[in-house]
Amino acid sequence: MSSTMRDDIRSSGEASCNGIVRRMVRLPRSLIGGFSRAMGHGRGRIGIGGRRTQNLPSNFQMQNTEEPLIVPEAFAFLHGFEQHYGTMHPFFYACQFMEALKIAKDEHKFLFMYLHSPEHPFTPSFCRETLSSELVVQFLDANFVSWAALTDREEGLQMAATLNPSCFPFCAIIAPAHSDSIAVLQKMEGPISPTELMGILQRTVEEQGLAFHSQKAKQAEQNQKMIADHRLRDEQDAAYLAALQIDKEKEKLKSSALAERIQKPVQVPKKANSEKLENHSNKKNNGKMKEASATRDSQYKEVANRGKDPQAAQILIRFPNGERREQCFLCTDKVQAIYRHIDSLGLPGIGNYRLISSFPRRVYGVDQMGMMLKDAGLHPRASLFLELL
């Protein structure tokens, strides 16, 4: 690197490490807004003069091979360069700056930018000797995405105002950053030989390339994790919807069975038989109430006895009306045992329901009936909410 260029870099106040300049630059809105217009033209890859076989954009026209090329303003640099210095030059992407930056990002490469000032006295020697050097051309084409513009036209003028070069010729090595910013890894201002330029390019690739690619790999890993998380969430939602559908089908079957019983004609018995049936029903109901009371008393005793057992699972059940009841089970009992316990309470208004744990939220429905409490995460203590369906 020339002493003039080092002085320019130091005077710019940018952070430098081992000769590598790092500077975050915010791009003008006009450049960012021009990206959508650039995408409408596609990626224009053109090197006027026939050094390569390129695809010309639709608005690039030629009258015939003997007449001069009618070059749009976006390709004025390439046209002028090859007229004065020949066709041996890096493969400059003839497109908008933001599109070239996107190409570099997609190909995991740095962007080599050259701002061409035709009137500057150092420009001819730099273009003829350095940019036209076969070694420089091969290295840039293999490791960089190259983009160039005239300093007195459109995007070249905007980039010159943004980067504020102190001397020409001006080159920069750029890495994509945020949507409205770029990372300037290296600035080369003033005349520079092919050997000096190659040294800067190689050192930048070696010192910055590893961090650049590791960042890309980390981003790719994060993207894969996000995709896996979304897939898992979708699978859980699908399983929940399937269980909900099963519950709805069961409720529909119960409703249809109840409707059939209601529609059946009821035979009216004689008065004596009616009284006998009524007395029998009352005795039966009283017997059920006594049995339920005895069951609850025995269960309360069971809770007190099992509470000290390390194999016991204390389950607190919260009902929709705010009531709470606690019951003790064995850790080897199945989730179905909790449902049987709730059914045995004979609580009014408890028909079709399911059990849900609040944190972490988990539904203990039909598919979990056969799980042991310890495998279901309900041992040694758990709190379940009874949700009516």
What does this entry look like structurally?
By secondary structure, the chain is α+β, with helices and mostly antiparallel strands. It has two domains: 3-220, Glutaredoxin, CATH 3.40.30.10; 300-389, Ubiquitin-like (UB roll), CATH 3.10.20.90. The protein has ten helices and eleven strands. It has helices at residues 3-11, 29-41, 76-85, 97-106, 123-131, 134-143, 154-163, 194-263, 271-306, 335-344; strands spanning 15-17, 20-26, 110-116, 144-150, 170-176, 181-189, 312-318, 324-330, 353-357, 362-364, 381-388. The protein has a six-stranded mixed β-sheet with strand order 1-2-6-5-3-4. The chain has a five-stranded mixed β-sheet with strand order 8-7-11-9-10. Strand 9 and strand 10 form a beta hairpin. Helix 6 (134-143) packs parallel to helix 8 (194-263). The longest helix has 70 residues, at 194-263. Mean pLDDT is 76; it is low at 1-21 and 35-71.
